[in-house]
Amino acid sequence: MGKDLQQQNEDRLNSGGSTGMGAWLWHRAKPYTPPWIVVGGVGLAGAGANWQWGGSPWAGVGLTLASTALTAATWWAGKSTGPQRRLHSAITVAAGSAWLTSAALSGPLTGPLPDLYLMGGATLALSWNIRHVMRAAGGETSGSDSDKGLLEKVGLARTKLRQIKVEPNRVTVPYELPAGELTNDDVAKALPRIASALDVPTTAIRVQHDPDSARKGQFVIVPEDMLKTPTLYPGPFAPGQSIAVPLRIGVYDDGSDLVLPLLDAIHMLVMGMTGSGKTEGALDLFFELLTRRDVSVWLSDAAKGGQDFLPLVPALDWAALDTVSASAMVATVQAVIPARAAWLRDHSYRAWEPAAAEKQTDPAHSCRAAGACGCDGMPYLVAWFEEAAKLLRELGDDVFTGIAQEARSAGVSLVISMQRASGYQLSTDTRASLPAAMCFGVRGDDASFALPEEVLEAGANPAAWGNKRKGYVYMVSAGVDEDLYANPARTFWTGPSGEYEKAAAWIVAQFAGVRPQSTGTVTEDIAAKVAGQLFTERHARAGAPAPAAATVPAQAQAPTDAQESAQAVAALVDAEDADLDATAELPAAGVDAALPEGKPSTEEARELLAELVEMLASVGPGTVAVKDLGPYLEQIGRDRSWVSREMKRLAEEGRLAPTGEAGVYRLLPVLAGVGG
User: Fold this and answer.
1) Please, what are the domains in the chain?
2) CA 63, CA 99: separation in Å to the nearest integer?
3) What is the pLDDT, as a whole number, of residue 618?
4) Which of 180, 203, 236, 626 is a plausible cystine mate for 663, CB 3.0–4.6 Å?
């Protein structure tokens, strides 16, 4: 930080109009002449003092006291410098003042004084010359006077600056705080003041703490914003390779690649205000995901209907672009996690790995007792919930908690994208289960919910961007160097309107044969049971308007044994008894077997059940259990087993979402109150 001042001093000392070798040597020698001039001055002062006070005892007392005081003052004044410089200065002053006192009293040419002057003076002058050479070569970089003045102003007085490393548009300054006086926390608090003193943006300076010390670290200063000009999307980073290879989505301010190791990140929160470039970053991630061979992508975007992602929808395994489908997707992801974890366990995988996506021909990964099982592989699954605030409002702030906590070893990554995350929208349990984060520009202190405290203390400040720096982002993830957490980056620009669509169309068509054709049998079977036609007909529905809730068709699947039995019984029933409910309990002995007067028909019972489910879920935690309907069985006119079957049917049609607890379902708000 004092480099410019030092250079100016050297230029001033080396300035002159003479030319030739002699002039050059003289100019190079000038910086080393001050110590010799001081030595000469002390010799003249000794001769003058002897002429004035020679032989006077009172002068001897005064000069001795002055010499002692001058040495003590030098030691005191040097407390803000390094210990070597302080000791060197005190020794020089003490030696010079002692010789001057002796010369004043007895004469500069008396006894050993001439020899002491010549040898001692030359030695001290040369020691200062050597010090100057070492300092110029970078051997001592404890900081110039201007550096220390700056550090004192910002509350870091007596901080030592070590060897400065200068790179193109990057200056690294190691520091060491005074022991017992300051800690790295004080440095973090001083960063805005340092930025002010250097007249750079607050995002241009950050601090990297030494993990082995509470008072050491280094400042990193990037004076020029190299991210002002966006970098056009350069194409896929690892086309046709595994999702285990990190995803390249942008560049850091030092020009290095911004990469996300998804298998290390696992789950991620993406946050940024409107206009901050959050969607552009999402497109970069999708461009990478859709060029890999072993990952399927599910996208939920009920808020915008997939407006920003429509060109990529044909390449997605499932695009839920309405609230009905989005709610069904949440329930499906919850349901497939245990099934996928069981598949991995049965095939001897401790966690998902690229080999799990291939056909299982390795006997070491077989679900059979002996030999390879030959089962189809299970690709990695990314469940991306765009503008997730809408789902959180309707389904509850803990809707993603179970997914985030249980999907870690099931080969599923959960991505929650929203403009502003807070404790009111996202439960602390869910946030704690999202270890990775991408934070674009935000307002105020919103970043504290996305970025760890130590990253903010290191200088990360997305609030300084807001929506004025589109695409600027901080990324925190396992597998990324922690020193990069507080480094600003910028995601790639996919191009203006028209160019982005061309790039997306190329991705969709070029890598159609690379992407997996399914998410795996186990995943698809569970998804079909939970979401019904919302999943089985997902490709036909992609991009189409959501059907009215009342016209959502029941799931088309093979009848169960119970259904086949019921159909066989129905075939034997007379036409006049067709309206009777064959599933109703038989009346007690002695009671007329005919339906009691006023008993609801099947359709009426279903409508009444739907109303009761809506009512119970609205006054409770958003869930309803079969047992909760016990007091209403007489009103419905059916028994508990009929209610249980009907609730399963509603879940299969996507009207209710099964939870991890048997017989308990979550109400999907968009379908609330809709009868069968």
Assistant:
1) 27-136 (no CATH), 145-221 (3.30.980.40), 247-545 (3.40.50.300), 551-671 (1.10.10)
2) 11
3) 59
4) 626
Residues recorded for the chain: 676
Burial of 648 per CB tally in 10 Å (0-12, 13-18, 19+): middle
Q: Which of 371, 398, 298 is nearest to 623 (CA)?
A: 398
Residue (of 256, 219, 202, 229) closest to 447 by Cα position: 202
Task: Characterize 553-574 residue by residue with b for buried, 16 or more Cβ atoms within 10 angstroms of its Cβ, and e for exposed.
Answer: eebeeeeeeeeeeeeeeeeeee
Token pair in block for residue 116:
């002491």
* 535-538 contacts, C-beta under 8 A, 24 or more apart: 535/318, 535/328, 535/332, 538/317, 538/318, 538/319, 538/325
Give the H or E element holding residue 39: helix 34-53
Distances, alpha carbon 188 to alpha carbons 182, 183, 284, 459, 505, in Å: 11, 9, 32, 7, 46
Say which residue, 597 or 359, is predicted with more confidence: 359
pLDDT for residue 19: 54
Give pLDDT, residue 204.
81
Residue 288 pLDDT level (bands cut at 50, 70, 90): very high
What is d(CA 564, CA 584) in angstroms, rounded to the nearest whole number? 17
What the block records as the tokens of 327 is 């709610």
Q: What is the pLDDT of residue 44?
A: 83
CA distances from 486 to 252, 421, 454, 457, 475 (A): 10, 20, 9, 9, 8
pTM listed for this prediction: 0.60
Rounded to an integer, what distance in angstroms lies between the CA atom of residue 456 and that of residue 460? 5
What local confidence, expressed as pLDDT, does residue 545 receive?
Answer: 39
Query: What was the pLDDT predicted at 47?
Result: 79
Listed in sequence order, the residues at least 6 apart from 266 whose beta carbon sits closer than 8 Å to its beta carbon are 407, 408, 413, 435, 436, 478
H/E run at residue 625: strand 623-625
pLDDT tens for each residue of 79-102: 767 777 788 888 888 888 888 888
